[in-house]
Amino acid sequence: MDLVRLTISELQKGFRAGTFHPVDVLRALELRIQEVEPSVQAFLSRDFEAALRRAEAADVALPLGGIPVGIKDVINVQGDPCGCASRILESYTAPYDATAIARLRAAGAIPFGRLNMDEFAMGSSTENSAFQTTRNPWDTSRIPGGSSGGSAAAVAACEVPAALGSDTGGSIRQPASLCGCVGLKPSYGRVSRYGLVAFASSLDQIGPVARSTRDCALLLNAIAGRDPMDSTSLDLPAEDFTSELDRDLKGVRLGIPKEYFVDGVDNRVKSTIEAAIRQCAEHGAELVEISLPHTEYAVSVYYIIATAEASANLARFDGVRYGRRSDKPRDLTDLYVRTREEGFGSEVKRRIILGTYVLSSGYYDAYYLRAQKVRTLIRQDFVQAFEKVDVVVCPTSPEVAFPIGERTSDPLKMYLADIFTIAANLAGICGISVPGGFIDEGGRKLPVGLQFLGKPLAESRLLGVADAYERVSGWSKQIAPV
Ligand code: GLN
Fold this sequence. Notes:
Elements lengths: L7 H10 L4 H19 L2 E3 L2 H9 L11 E5 L26 H8 L3 E6 L33 H8 L5 E6 L5 H7 L2 E4 L19 E6 L2 H11 L29 E5 L9 H16 L3 E5 L7 H16 L18 H12 L2 H14 L5 H24 L2 E5 L15 H5 L6 H6 L2 E12 L2 E11 L4 H15 L9
Helix pairs in contact: 2-3, 5-6, 7-15, 9-11, 9-12
Bound molecules: glutamine (GLN).
The site of glutamine (GLN) has 13 residues, from loops.
């Protein structure tokens, strides 16, 4: 049996039946990592020995007992480096566990490895990492998506059964889509952000990347819930997110937003998604055309709000409190300026400058305040749509994984990679990307992600629909050729 290919639920069964032990799985994963990492480069670092000790002591009766979970380099794991793939935090070691990590541990899981990302989660291809370029396991000449590209690539390459990522504008769903995984962005407030290095605090959420919807539900069960350390985490009754799995699509009202099937979407992606939606209908889903009229403003609004919040959040990296400090500063100003000049990459600088500009007096009303108003309109579009439908269905990304280097010189083109994922963050709703088919390109199969969007806090329903589609389509069983 190939242990590295198993899902969390399959691993749990094997552990509990005594067929294999968490130590066997961890050793198999480590061998797999050694075999494929030279071509995938998803991990920034990992501590195999420490993970092994935890695997030896694993309690497989716990909900995630003995399950290794890869962690995006933006989430604090006590004692591990937490560098956000940035030079400015190169020497930084996390002094505490993020709440999501503490909860994973309480559920028996083993945080394993630091996964590559775009610097401070800014990007859509993982090419903005200060350290290495992660490659797509379906075609290593292509990007894995971003910013959680390391998380998606590691899961797709069977280096870990699952990983945590963070999603501010699509950073879980878009790489999951491009790497043929399942990626869930929970509703805003569902998962504590304590210990997640902040990019844009009103948009950020931690969520799982895995090889099945069920596994995402199991991870969400572990990490969700109110946390006194994050005042934006919501106090809700405990919920079992697997409760609506194993149902069918009969009677599910699926909303198809006409604004998401426009020019600019790769025709092969469009026909793949249309075929996936037809399959949902054949299995009993009711298709309803809806309109999300403010969709065209989502990218612009996002790049005002996200950069504004980022400019404030990243002010703390000043050479005094965290990580890197420039050598022999002349004075305090020189210390700040040179630390930031040397420590941040160009995309991060671009966003700090943009964010500072939109917040500056004289421009605040014209940009930031107006963007907040349009954000409300985008949210209302969804409120209205969800009066008529249970779940919205659309592409996750307008295209498949593109070649490494193709977009790095054109930030605007890169920003458009998130055109279908951003609105969910602005509206605070939940969304999931599941494999929706493949297209052939130059003799390679490249995954296409199908995105389902759900009402705020309706993750159980969302997961139920995604799981039903996953079972009728069978796409998530495909394994990358790397
Ligand atoms: N790609 C988007 C950006 O560059 C989204 C990033 C994210 O979700 N963290 O901002």
